[in-house]
Amino acid sequence: MGSRRQAREHALQALYQCEALGELTQECVDWYFQAFHADEDGSVDFGKHEFARILALGVLENLDTIDKTISAASQNWSVSRMSQVDRNILRLGAFEISFLEDIPPNVSINEAIEIAKRFASDDSPMFINGVLDKVATDARRRNVDVAWNKAINE
């Protein structure tokens, strides 16, 4: 398994744990890495977990926007109705698609599907694929609109 996939899984586990505790905060994410990924001496190499922390903290910093994006893309499903695993996989995928321009959307979608196959229900990969595909389509559309408006106004 690639290190980025593993980082995504660690980010999912951190978000899941923190949401279960009712503490979607940076402190909880840091606690997660301390509790579950500390070295034998009790220290955490945050550099080793940098991408996982970028993902988890990025989701937390943009949670309202991400949840609105997911709600708009998932017809007839509110974010609160989704399983906690699906919701957090979608949050990670939507964060990557919307905020991490160096990662192609199809990579983010595929990674989310593979993680869903491992951690979520049998129906989840198809659901996650559909929602994140819509998130990516909407993001591309917004980017084209921004570029078009910028070109017109120059």
Give an overview of the whole structure.
The protein has 154 residues and is an all-alpha fold. The protein has a single domain, classed as N-utilizing Substance Protein B Homolog, Chain A (Orthogonal Bundle), CATH 1.10.940.10. Helices cover 74% and strands 0% of the residues. It has 7 helices and no strands. The longest helix is centred in the C-terminal third of the chain and has 30 residues, at 124-153. The mean pLDDT is 90.
On the 0 to 100 scale, the average pLDDT is 90
Broad shape: globular
Strand content: under 5%
Q: What gap, in angstroms, lies between the N and C termini? A: 46 Å
Please work out how many helical segments DSSP would assign.
7
Biggest sheet layout: none
User: CATH superfamily name?
Assistant: NusB-like
Q: Structural class, please?
A: mainly alpha
Count of DSSP E strands? Answer: 0
Q: How much helicity do the residues have?
A: over 70%
CATH secondary-structure class = Mainly Alpha
Outline the secondary-structure elements.
Layout: H1 3-20, H2 26-37, H3 50-61, H4 63-73, H5 84-99, H6 105-119, H7 124-153
Give a summary of the structure in a few sentences.
Helix content is 74%, strand content 0%.
